[in-house]
Design brief:
The protein is an alpha/beta fold. It has a domain at about 15-190 and about 225-230: NADP-dependent oxidoreductase domain (TIM Barrel, Alpha-Beta Barrel). Helix content is about 40%, strand content about 15%. It contains ten helices and ten strands. The chain has helices spanning about 30-40, 55-65, 85-100, 115-130, 140-150, 170-180, 200-205, 210-220, 235-240, 250-255, and strands at about 5, 15, 20, 45, 70-75, 105-110, 130-140, 160, 180-185, 225. Strands 3-4-5-6-7-8-9-10 form an eight-stranded parallel β-sheet. Helix 2 (about 55-65) packs parallel to helix 3 (about 85-100). The longest helix has 15 residues, at about 85-100. The chain is globular. The chain starts with a strand and ends in a 16-residue tail after the last helix. The structure holds nicotinamide-adenine-dinucleotide. GO terms for molecular function: oxidoreductase activity, acting on the CH-OH group of donors, NAD or NADP as acceptor. This is Aldo/keto reductase. Keywords: NADP, Oxidoreductase.
């Protein structure tokens, strides 16, 4: 169901929809979620050292019948792991926990002031050595990206940010498109809060789809990669069934009307 991909600036294929596992508990909960996702056809998992479940994600991948090479695996360097050597060490810890040779996408989780440029140097080294297939950032504003680009030898291929109809970051989306940086949406469902917003429900009924599917489709139609989280097998499966319908201009206009620059998470300048 879920094979459609976008091509990153360096030619690497990244699935449009992946499973997010923030707050999916290490052990049974996240293992079951990852296995259900892989069975449902997902080929992309988004974790982070901060989530403290990389080991379980790795275990679920190893125990599944899907070759690890077919799975696009993202992890991230956390705020207290910044710095050149520190990041190289953090990467090795993540890689060991995940139990894979190569990570598909390694991201700087938050733009820690005064530190992220040095950290970027470590990501470039990992990329040049072939230990990661692509490198990118998360929670970067266009100003952070401008700063980073001044020193970067390799441009970030992805920027993963909070993005949903209530926080339709149009300027950032345009900036990223201009620079061939793939935007990726975190919290695409507003952690569930957006599911009963009026136009979302109405549009879901109109297409015979679920509200979550409408929100995920909305991201994709804006050329934004999406990583909805669920640990419920039926919801995991249903969240990826978004390739059999399209939102029309009227739907898009109604959903875009929800924008109020509202964040459910931190602003990039107030990272945790
Ligand atoms: P989300 O918007 O994906 O919402 C997840 C919640 O929505 C679930 O816990 C569940 O309660 C509900 N839900 C999911 N599918 C549903 C369905 N079909 N029907 C009804 N309810 C449903 O929120 P999120 O987990 O915060 O974001 C998704 C992923 O983004 C995370 O798991 C993580 O991988 C990533 N993320 C990254 C950052 C970052 O700083 N880079 C921050 C937050 C999240």
């Amino acid at each position: 169901i879920q094979t459609s991909t976008t091509t990153l600036a360096n030619g690497v294929e990244m699935p449009w929809v992946g499973l997010g596992v923030y707050k999916a508990e290490a052990g049974n909960e996240v293992e079951r979620a990852v296995k259900s996702a892989l069975e449902a056809g997902y080929r992309s998992i988004d974790t982070a050292s901060f989530y403290e479940n990389e080991h379980s994600v790795g275990k679920a991948i190893a125990e599944s019948s899907i070759p690890a090479d077919d799975i696009f695996l993202t992890t991230k360097v956390w705020n207290n792991e910044h710095g050149f050597n520190e990041t190289l060490e953090a990467f090795e810890r993540s890689r060991e926990k995940l139990g894979v040779d190569v990570i598909d996408l390694y991201l700087i989780h938050w733009p820690v002031p005064g530190k992220y440029k040095e950290t970027w140097g470590a990501l470039e080294k990992l990329y040049e050595e072939g230990k990661v297939r692509a490198i990118g950032v998360s929670n970067f504003t266009d100003q952070h990206l401008e700063e980073l680009m001044k020193i970067a030898k390799v441009k970030p291929m992805v920027n993963q940010v909070e993005f949903h109809p209530r926080l339709f970051q149009k300027d950032l989306l345009e900036y990223c498109q201009t620079h061939d940086i793939q935007l990726e949406a975190w919290r695409p469902l507003g952690q569930g809060d957006l599911l009963d917003a009026d136009p979302v429900q109405r549009i879901a009924e109109k297409h015979g789809k679920k509200p979550a599917q409408v929100l995920i489709r909305w991201s994709m139609e804006n050329n934004v990669v999406t990583i909805p989280k669920s640990v419920t097998p039926e919801r995991i499966k249903s969240n990826a069934e978004v390739f059999d319908f399209e939102l029309d201009a009227e739907d898009l206009q109604a959903i875009n009307g929800l924008n109020e620059d509202r964040r459910y998470g931190f602003h990039p300048d107030d990272f945790p």
